[in-house]
Amino acid sequence: MTLAQLEYAQERMQQKWYELAMAEQRGVASPVLERMYNAYVPAIEEYNRRREEYQRETQAESDPEAVKQKRAARSEAPSSSAKREHAKKAS
After folding, report:
1. How far apart are CA 26 and CA 20, in angstroms?
2. Maximum Cα–Cα distance across the chain
3. Distance of CA 18 to the CA centre of its chain
4. What is the torsional sign of CA 17, 18, 22, 28?
5. Among 40, 15, 10, which Cα is nearest to 1's?
6. Torsion sign over Cα 35, 40, 46, 48
7. 3-class DSSP state for residue 78?
8. For the chain, what are the domain ranges?
9. Are 70 and 18 within 8 A, CB to CB?
10. CB-CB contact of 37 with 16 (8 Å)
11. pLDDT one-digit tens code per residue, 13-53
């Protein structure tokens, strides 16, 4: 999911809403407004789905850094085998 795809879905959703609002102001018949609304709802759902997917992907991209930091911290701390070896030497 790219930012451009997310922005496209947002623009599409906003355009559907704008068309619906303008049609209502012009006094378009209720059945037509209902059809327009029924087209707007999937646009909202698509935008929400794409937004969630984009957030998951950007979160996943930032998580490897946290994993690297945790691994680095673990490698700096003595391992359990190193602790056992040190305990043997101390006895």
Report:
1. 10
2. 92
3. 25
4. negative
5. 10
6. negative
7. coil
8. 3-90
9. no
10. no
11. 999 999 999 999 999 999 999 999 999 999 999 999 999 99
Q: How many CA atoms lie within 13 A of 27 on its CB side?
A: 0
53-84 pLDDT per residue, tens: 999 999 988 876 655 665 666 566 555 555 55
In this predicted structure, what is the pLDDT of residue 63? 75
* Cβ atoms < 10 Å from Cβ of 63: 10
Q: How is the chain split among helix, strand and coil, in percent rounded to 5?
A: 90, 0, 10
CB-based contact 6:50 (threshold 8 Å): yes
For the record, the structure tokens of 9 come out as 């879905």
pLDDT band at 1 (very low <50, low <70, confident <90, very high): confident
